[in-house]
Amino acid sequence: MKLIGVGVGPGDIELFTLKAINAIEEAAYIFIPESRGKSIAYDIARPLLEDKYNIIFLDIPMGCGRDLYKTYAERIFRTSEGKTSVFLTLGDPSIYSTFIYIADEIKNLGGDVSTIPGIPSFIAAAALIGEPLLRKGDKMIVCDSIDEINLKGLDAVVVLKTLDKEKILNLLEEEGFKYFYIKRCTQKDEMVLTDRDDILKDNDYLSMIIAKRS
């Protein structure tokens, strides 16, 4: 069987690629990860799935271990019956996605794996705030934590998980970065904050910080 990781992008249905749409249309099964009965990837792709009867939801909790990934990979492998299926993922399949771990287990089972890229949230966010991420000669890091990262010599920093915002902002300010806090980029309730106090008050999981040298 073949499993294709399909990136659905950050939220706006118009940011879907034609290749992603075609893969969904042709898939034997459409696997969608959810956590506690919710799936942002499904919410984004819903307009493309309204007439589909081959959707299978997988309740995959965040941060689960390899044993569970293996269990779900085996289910996907058996269900697909040698056909080509897709696995939807928020943003891009190659960036901090559940698909990465499922794909490893599918390969171990003898299946084929490929990906169809989606627009990453931080690329969409850069367009939203009107700030280029990199100019010629610039250096940038994309991370889920800036702990133990030497910010000296970097021109841009993207933090995709903002669980300890006060610490993040302190480190960025110490190194002279200006920053933008973006929540739910391209979704109906998207917001951009630059005031430190406002940022610290917000606790939306779907948020990121983009920082640039002042």
TrEMBL record:
**Keyword Zinc assigned:** no
| Signal peptide range | none
Q: Which domain of life is it from?
A: Bacteria
Report whether Methyltransferase shows up as a keyword of the record. yes
For the biological process aspect of GO, one term held by this record is: methylation
MF terms in GO: precorrin-2 C20-methyltransferase activity
> Which parts pass through the membrane?
none
Residue limits of the Tetrapyrrole methylase domain?
2-194
Database matches in SUPFAM superfamilies: Tetrapyrrole methylase (SSF53790)
Metabolic or biological pathway, per its Swiss-Prot or TrEMBL entry: Cofactor biosynthesis; adenosylcobalamin biosynthesis
Q: Which UniProt keywords apply?
A: Cobalamin biosynthesis, Methyltransferase, S-adenosyl-L-methionine, Transferase
Q: Which family does it belong to?
A: Belongs to the precorrin methyltransferase family.
The name this protein goes by in its record: Precorrin-2/cobalt-factor-2 C20-methyltransferase
Q: Which species is listed as the source? A: Caloramator proteoclasticus DSM 10124
Top-down, what is the taxonomic lineage of the species of origin? Bacteria, Bacillati, Bacillota, Clostridia, Eubacteriales
